[in-house]
Amino acid sequence: MENSPLITIITPVYNVEAFLPQCLDSILAQTFQFWELILIDDGSTDKSGAICDEYAHKDSRIRVVHKVNTGQADSRNIGLSMANASLVGFVDSDDWIEEDMYEHLYRVITDFQADISMCSYFLDYVDKSEAVCKGKEVEVYSREEALDLILMDQEIKSYPWDKLFRKEMIKDLFPTSFYYEDYATVFKWMANAKKVAFYRAPEYHYRQRKGSTSNDADPAKAYHFFCAEKERYDYVISSNFSSEKKAYYARKFLKIAIVQAKNMAKYSICPKEGIKYIRKIGEGLSSYDSLNLHGLFLNKRFKRMKIQYFPSYFFYEVRMKWRLKFWKKSKFQLDKFY
């Protein structure tokens, strides 16, 4: 590579031959030229790997790694280990970006001396495109403000692809044991930043399609989302947040546990599979002495859901009722959480 890159772009690739050329062409078209692109072919069985090699042959800024299929998180981690630049961005292989995206993100992160810059994005459907946020102004957040926004799923989301990170912010790698690895990780990078700058113009195109990780509904993925939320809750209770914020997030955590259990019940093709993962959620909650699990399991709306969808599991749980009374009482008053 003739010039040292200022930005490393990491793109995991898996069976996206129909979308990959548009993604790569949008990166090659960037008005900001000082980048390197690391393509991680995650064991694709279609022509995606060959397309990666074709583009790498055309442009020396592109490097390709071919490996066995180990998942998106592992692919992103490999890309991070190979990054030469001091700034890191991510583009998913079925998405594409506006030609000036990295020019704006680079300008914002340098002009405002931020640790992370970010932009808005489009939700792209087959028949329409919707901008999540419009504008040209830049909003600057402190660490505390940014962390609040991302943990409460408000203006800052846990996507890595709409952001540019100083590499020293990335002290935690993506977990490889479950889906939704970005939801369990990006907030930790945000916690390492002193300043976050948000350029409100939509620059990233997030393709909405069936078969993507984020759109599949099955018990395993519902449980994995619970695991990612558990990572966030563990961070909150171990940090110096106020007792009010910890209580708020405890309610949020428990509500998500119930919603995911309900999704398992509604969408599971195999009831036994749904029951298995509902039990795993219960086991995950049982490690917290500070949560009112007794109140959770006796919650009327949760009980109705279990009777409706999984009567066999409901009666199994009745047998476990006597164990619940030995669990410690909650430090938080959560009886009105749902």
Automatic annotation (TrEMBL):
InterPro entries: Glyco_trans_2-like, Nucleotide-diphossugar_trans
Pfam families the record matches: Glycos_transf_2
Record keywords, A-Z: Glycosyltransferase, Transferase
GO molecular function: hexosyltransferase activity
Signal sequence bounds: none
Sequence ranges assigned to domain Glycosyltransferase 2-like in this UniProt record: 8-130
PANTHER family for the chain: GLYCOSYLTRANSFERASE (PTHR22916), GLYCOSYLTRANSFERASE EPSH-RELATED (PTHR22916:SF51)
Protein's name according to its UniProt entry: Glycosyltransferase 2-like domain-containing protein
